[in-house]
């Protein structure tokens, strides 16, 4: 009975992998057709490849870009230019935002201790001040100001020493975003929903949600 169960698992695995290959092939073929490659040429190429491999099952793949693991955060240039014209941010606030860019986690847009970690740990105010080589008092003042202006958002994330509430800090993706602008995570949309209705921010030229 155990052997039969193993066979079922193996068959399910093979079937699942086959479906994944079919979906990947269909995606690439659709892309080829979208970019102007006639279906007849695609079919002919597939036929030739099949014959060349002894009619074995074909898998079409694309080479992964050597830059696919490069971490980056995007400035929304039009929005920053707009804020500059409105004199919305102070010099200290601009410097702070520039300094924390290396610590903005991909997709979550949370300021963390190390963006390379599989599960990044949010950085508190004291830790952020150390990361950007600033004193805690100035860092705290700047953060509170940016929260009031809707550029940062605080989310309670537990209790630290001395029973002090711990907060995670997130950057408004309309200013700086480490992720896909077409797929802004729901938690960021919820956090900055009200902020994007504030005076000046509601008039930003480029809206992600």
Second-tier CATH architecture of the largest domain? Orthogonal Bundle
CATH class of the largest domain: Mainly Alpha
Number of domains: 2
Let me know the CATH homologous superfamily of the largest domain: Winged helix-like DNA-binding domain superfamily/Winged helix DNA-binding domain
How many strand units? 4
Distance between the termini: 54 Å
**Mean pLDDT across all residues, rounded?**
83
Query: What is the C-alpha radius of gyration, as a whole number of Å?
Result: 25 Å
String of helices and strands: HHEHHHHEEEH
The SS-based structural class is: mainly alpha
Poorly predicted spans: none
Question: In DSSP terms, counting alpha (H) and pi (I) runs of 4 or more, how many helices?
Answer: 7
Beta percentage is 5-15%
How can the largest sheet be summarized? 2 strands, antiparallel
Helix content: 40-55%
User: What is the general shape?
Assistant: elongated
Give the strand order of the largest sheet, numbering strands 1, 2, ... along the chain.
1-4
- What is the fold-level CATH name, i.e. the topology of the largest domain? Arc Repressor Mutant, subunit A
Give an account of the 3D structure.
The protein is mainly alpha-helical and 209 residues long. The chain folds into two domains: 2-52; 74-203, Winged helix-like DNA-binding domain superfamily/Winged helix DNA-binding domain (Arc Repressor Mutant, subunit A, Orthogonal Bundle), CATH 1.10.10. Helices cover 44% and strands 9% of the residues. A hairpin with a 5-residue loop joins strand 2 and strand 3. Helix 5 crosses helix 6 (136-148). It comes from Niallia alba.
């Amino acid at each position: 009975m155990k052997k039969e169960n193993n066979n079922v698992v193996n068959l399910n695995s093979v079937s699942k992998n086959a479906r994944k290959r079919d979906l990947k092939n269909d995606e690439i073929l659709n892309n080829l057709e979208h970019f102007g490659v006639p279906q007849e040429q695609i079919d002919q190429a597939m036929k030739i490849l099949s014959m060349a491999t002894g009619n074995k099952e074909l898998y079409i793949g694309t080479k992964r870009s050597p830059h696919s693991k490069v971490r980056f955060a995007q400035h929304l240039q039009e929005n920053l230019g707009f804020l500059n014209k409105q004199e919305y941010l102070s010099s200290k606030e601009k410097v702070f935002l520039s300094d924390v860019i290396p610590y903005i986690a991909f997709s979550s847009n949370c300021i963390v201790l190390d963006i390379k970690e599989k599960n990044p740990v949010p950085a508190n105010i004291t830790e952020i001040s150390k990361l950007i080589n600033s004193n805690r008092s100035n860092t705290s003042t700047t953060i509170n100001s940016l929260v009031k202006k809707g550029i940062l958002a605080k989310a309670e994330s537990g209790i630290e020493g001395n029973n002090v509430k711990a907060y995670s800090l997130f950057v408004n993706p309309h200013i700086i975003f480490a992720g896909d602008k077409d797929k802004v995570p729901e938690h960021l949309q919820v956090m900055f929903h009200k902020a994007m209705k504030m005076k000046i921010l509601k008039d930003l030229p480029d809206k992600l949600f």
